[in-house]
Specification:
The protein has six helices and two strands. The longest helix has 17 residues. The chain has a two-stranded parallel ribbon with strand order 1-2. It is mainly α. Helix 3 links the parallel strand 1 and strand 2. It has a domain of 82 residues: Alpha/Beta hydrolase fold, catalytic domain (Rossmann fold). Helix content is 48%, strand content 8%.
């Protein structure tokens, strides 16, 4: 959330390295009247994370605190867009694929039956 603000206290290369490791969709919101953190920081953060930049006209520093309704609507819109995007299927290794059928209780009964079929080792 405040990765752009870290650029004022950390080396820009450090922040750039962190930003490039972001692998999830990112929304960067910045006010065009921010006198503490320049717009160029938000622009570089959006570029380095391959994120989406929204510049709020007339907003200052920390737009979430100054205009929470507008920011929350932007976040909701961003999340709704992500929800509309079909998720990529998880790939499993061939040996990890196992077809599951029936209800959970059916699977539990099957496991219990499977254990009953296992030979019990003879005692000492």
């Amino acid at each position: 959330m405040l990765l752009a603000d870290l650029q004022s206290v950390l080396a820009p290369e450090t922040v750039l390295g962190w930003a490039k490791r972001v692998s999830v969709p990112t929304l960067v919101i910045h006010g065009d009247d921010d006198r503490i953190s320049p717009l160029t920081r938000a622009q570089s953060l959006a570029r380095d994370t391959a994120g989406e930049l929204v510049v709020l006209e007339g907003a200052g520093h920390i737009p979430l605190a100054r205009d929470p309704v507008r920011v929350n609507l932007l976040i909701r819109e961003f999340a709704d867009k992500l929800a509309a995007t079909p998720a990529r299927p998880t790939r499993l290794a061939p040996d990890a694929r196992r077809r599951r059928t029936g209800s959970l209780s059916d699977r539990r009964l099957q496991r219990r039956d499977d254990r009953a079929d296992c030979p019990v080792p003879a005692g000492p």
